[in-house]
Design goal:
The structure holds two protein chains of two kinds. Chain A is of the alpha+beta class. Helices cover 35% and strands 17% of the residues of chain A. Chain A has a domain of 143 residues: Dipeptide-binding Protein, domain 1 (Alpha-Beta Complex), CATH 3.90.76.10. Chain B is globular and about 85 Å long. Classes of the chains: A alpha+beta, B mainly alpha.
């Protein structure tokens, strides 16, 4: 492997040597100084005259723009764009193909954004990330908060014209709980829906599959709280009040997969002919490893329509440099900017105008193992929180991709509470550390900074170690670990490294999906051995509180404790610039939400392409 | 000869077993597992992880996991409680892929059709064959030409060209081709349209073939140069044979032996997919799938990748050895 890496590095270096002169030569630039800074511009300009000649009407129609930029009006490359056709890279970060798009089995962003094109849950989300009726027309919640009655929209149909009834949702929610499904998100609804934990005994109670299936399945299914009363009414009974359940009902896990499709085998979803849903789009073609082609679902009813687009193409491009070339060549209409390309984008006269800033749904942090010295000492953790320059971290290390934060819930999400309790203050940090009994770091055990090894991360964590040296006088050792091994380490407090870097991304927009993770048995607190009884009490109360105002207040109080305890140091939220061609309408910072797994997704009715 | 071929084929079996065992063991020993992928998302609850580990047999002792993968096993169906016989890799069953949560098998992913479209293996193999053909068809004549015109301008140009390509990486050639022919000249698109039977294949074939082309040209040149000075060539020329006969019948036959030797491993490498070219030109082939599997700790796919590569290597080497006998009658096998 190391030889391959070496070859990689050598290859990149050589490529730079080779490519730069070629580009410069193509520019044929006698104006040497400008050519080095923006090598892409001359070629672009060379291509532009023909285009301008071909579209004289457009130039005439926009005289003001031409006047505003009299020197040179660099035009975007529209390539082979067609009206109504949106071409993007496969969502999900790496641009690779989703491994499984069975709604009751999937768990990753790329898979979810694929599923949610074809399916719609009972609920959906609006622009403020409040749950609104999706496939359901209305929902009625009983006074005790235990019974949810969904009315399915009349005349609901699947994309192939067959009727969609409450029975289909009943099947899907039963499929989710059925222990044989063994989906990766099966544990999400444990203890929430009546009878769920009992039926899903393997996922919720830790029984083995053989033990679980030996139980009386028929009886357990009959006792399970999801029932279709008639074709248009679905009733869901909960085990305990869960005000966030409406958000959960909007998730992919409740997508109405049809029994006859799922019966075609464990990989039924692989063939587009079986991938029949009620979402805004129909999967027309899935050329595995190459692309997926979507067309609007003529039978769609719900808040995400009517769709203006005629076609959406997901291209599978795993190499971000290739995707960047494709975007510049007019073969993609939108693209998330990789941090390596950001400075090139910002200085480019054309690309810099195509930036749309987005906010993300993830928060990243430095985790501490709260059970190991010195981070079992709250003062030490607080000192680390004060000693970190988050602004510089985001600006210099992430090239401005993302935003600094000092709390857990990202801005824009319900429950976000702005705080500046741990603003960067090296003097205060030193004082706090001295207060903890370690003046200038004297007497501290060795601090090991564990991270997922990559060239990018090596540079990042050297910077962090330097911060600790300069601001606290601590010599931290770097401890790079193979990415997958790293992820395994961070799962349990027994193996959790002393100090490491991690993030959390929203499943659904509710403070319960964030704050409650820090209860003693919560997913994140349990990994690092953090426990605060006061916080536990508040969370326990908030999770079942029916009054929205009271509930929000309880979560706010809980967050204060969380921020003050510094079980981890919150650093930044993701997000940042995305390139959007000017002819793509309806994708702006104002219209998209952090929950748009891919840009403009929940905002789909507004999106159009008019090259 | 037949006995020799059979013996060679039988020798493949222990080789495959050892490679399978080593790959399987290394993949398993490497820390982390298939359910540790994304630390930023909700982690699997320990209970769900336990179920999945049982489902994939990861709770079994190592030897049992290996024999199940490699040979066969009797697997208990948790629903019916009955045990069912199940073939392993030697029976053509490489098992379910972990990343698809077990809903697809390795053989489906690599060799099965993709909803009516040709398999991933087809794309890798076709691309590899085309590249190999390009390298052989152009490389050998160019090498001969360079050798026959040693120290002339033809030789210098060919030598420079082949050295240049042989020392490049396919990553660079790939990117260069994209930038020149797709971005600057617009003869091709950056995103290929694989429904076209010809167009999308051109650039990746050139990119993949250019490096072996450089190697073959250089190798042919140097081995022709060596043969050219042999006594028997002088004898052939002295007895008045024409240039063409000397070159094709006497010189080339001997000069080709080293070239044929490297064709074996080269073919196996090209046929089983090449990572960079498949990624840059978005070829829906096997290479990218096999490499992604390493990051995902998709044990069944990783081991299958190694087994398939070794299998092709064995077949290619066998063909090379047979070709030796055809080219040089002095070589015989018993």
């Amino acid at each position: 492997m190391s030889i391959r890496n070496l070859r990689n590095t050598a290859a990149l270096a050589l490529m730079l040597v080779l490519v730069v002169p070629i580009l410069a030569a193509c520019g044929g630039a006698p104006a040497a100084p400008a050519a080095t800074t923006a090598p892409a511009a001359p070629t672009e300009a060379a291509a532009a005259p023909t285009e301008a000649a071909a579209a004289p009407t457009e130039a005439a129609a926009a005289p003001t723009e031409a006047a505003a930029a009299p020197t040179e009006a660099p035009a975007t490359n529209t390539g082979n764009a067609e009206p109504g056709v949106l071409r993007i890279r496969m969502p999900g970060g790496s641009g690779s193909e989703p491994d499984n798009v069975d709604p009751q089995q999937s768990s990753f962003v790329g898979e979810i954004s694929f599923i949610m094109m074809a399916y719609q849950g009972l609920m959906s989300f609006d622009k403020d990330m409040k749950p609104i009726p999706g496939a359901a027309e209305s929902v009625d919640v009983s006074a005790d908060g235990l019974t949810y009655t969904f009315k399915i929209r009349p005349d609901s149909k699947y994309s192939d014209g067959t009727p969609l009834t409450a029975k289909n949702f009943e099947y899907a929610w039963h499929r989710l709980a059925n222990p044989e499904t063994a989906g990766q998100y099966q544990s999400l609804a444990c203890g929430i829906i009546k009878g769920y934990s009992e039926w899903s005994a393997a996922a919720c109670q830790g029984k083995t599959m053989t033990e679980t299936l030996a139980l009386d399945q028929t009886q357990l299914e009959a006792d399970y709280g999801v029932k279709a009363i008639d074709d248009s009414t679905l009733q869901i009974e909960l085990a305990a009040p869960a005000p966030f359940f409406l958000s959960m009902a909007a998730l992919w896990i409740g997508a109405p997969v049809r029994e006859e499709d799922a019966a075609k085998g464990s990989d039924w979803w692989y063939d587009p002919a079986n991938y029949i849903g009620n979402g805004p789009f129909v999967l027309k073609e899935w050329d595995h490893g190459n692309k997926a082609v979507w067309e609007p679902n003529p039978n769609y009813v719900g808040p995400l329509g009517p769709v203006k687009l005629k076609q959406v193409v997901y291209n599978i491009i795993t190499e971000s440099q290739v995707a960047f070339q494709a975007y510049q060549n007019g073969e993609l209409d939108m693209l998330t900017v990789a941090s390596e390309d950001l400075s090139a984008v910002q200085t480019d006269p054309v690309l810099s105008k195509e930036i749309v800033n987005t906010v993300g749904s993830c928060t990243f942090y430095f985790g501490f193992n709260n059970t190991k010295a010195p981070f079992d000492n709250i003062k030490v953790r607080q000192a680390f929180a004060q000693a970190f320059d988050r602004e510089a971290w985001v600006r210099d290390i992430f090239n401005g991709l993302g935003n600094p934060t000092q709390t857990f819930i990202p801005p824009g999400f319900p429950g976000y509470e702005k705080t500046d309790q741990w603003s960067f203050d090296p003097a205060a940090a030193k004082a706090t550390l001295a207060d903890a009994g370690f003046p200038d770091g004297a007497g501290l055990p060795e601090i090991k900074l564990t991270y997922s090894a990559s060239a990018r991360n090596n540079a990042r964590f050297e910077w962090v170690a330097n911060q600790l040296k300069v601001n606290l006088g601590i010599d931290a050792t770097l401890d790079p670990v193979d990415p997958t091994a790293y992820s395994a380490l961070t799962k349990d407090k027994a193996t959790s490294p002393q100090m490491y870097y991690l993030g959390w991304c929203a499943d659904y927009p509710d403070p319960q999906n964030w704050v409650s993770l820090w209860a003693t048995t919560g997913q994140l607190a349990d990994r690092i051995g953090y426990s605060n009884p006061d916080l536990d009490a508040l969370i326990k109360q908030a999770d079942v509180e029916q009054d929205p105002a009271k509930r929000a207040d309880l979560y706010a109080q809980a967050q204060k404790i969380l921020v003050n305890d510094v079980p981890v140091v919150f650093l930044q939220n993701d997000g940042g610039p995305v390139l959007v061609k000017p002819y793509v309408k309806g994708v702006t910072a104002e219209t998209i939400t952090p929950l748009d797994y891919w840009l403009g997704f929940f905002n789909m009715p507004n999106v159009d392409v008019q090259p | 000869m037949t006995a020799y071929i059979i013996r060679r084929i039988l020798w493949q079996i222990p080789v495959l077993l050892i490679v399978g065992l080593m790959t399987f063991a290394i993949a398993k020993i490497t820390p982390g597992g298939p359910f540790d992928t994304d630390p930023n998302r909700r982690q699997l609850s320990p209970a769900v992880e336990k179920i999945l580990k049982q489902k994939f047999g990861m709770d079994l002792p190592f030897w049992h996991q290996f024999t199940r993968y490699m040979f066969f096993d009797f697997v208990e169906n948790p629903k019916t409680g009955e045990t069912e016989f199940q073939w392993g890799a030697l029976g053509g069953n490489f098992g379910p892929t972990y990343s698809s949560r077990g809903s697809r098998t390795v053989q489906q992913e690599l060799f099965g059709d993709r909803s009516g479209k040709p398999s991933r293996f087809y794309y890798s193999a076709r691309l590899g064959l085309q590249a190999l053909l390009l390298a052989v068809v152009l490389g050998i004549p160019m090498g001969v030409l360079a050798a026959l015109h040693q120290n002339t301008i033809i030789d210098y140009v060919l030598l420079f060209g082949s050295t240049f390509f042989a020392s490049l990486s396919s990553l660079i050639v790939g990117f260069l081709l994209v930038i020149i022919f797709a971005v600057i000249l617009s003869w091709f698109t950056v995103i290929p349209d694989w429904s076209d039977p010809v167009q999308p294949w051109i650039l990746p074939t050139i990119a993949l073939g250019s490096i072996p082309l450089g190697f073959i040209t250089r190798l042919t040149r140097s081995s022709v140069l060596e043969v050219k000075r042999q006594d028997y060539i002088r004898t052939a020329q002295a007895k008045g044979l024409g240039d063409q006969v000397v070159i094709w019948r006497h010189m080339l036959k001997n000069a080709l032996l080293p070239v044929v030797t490297i064709l074996g491993p080269m073919a196996a490498g090209l046929l089983t997919g090449t990572l960079y070219i498949e990624i840059i030109f978005q070829v829906p082939g096997m290479g990218s799938l096999l490499v992604e599997a390493i990051g995902k700790r998709d044990y069944s796919m990783i081991t299958a990748g190694a087994l398939i590569f070794v299998f092709f290597l064995g077949v290619a080497n066998l063909l090379v050895d047979i070709a030796y006998g055809v080219i040089d009658p002095r070589i015989s096998y018993k």
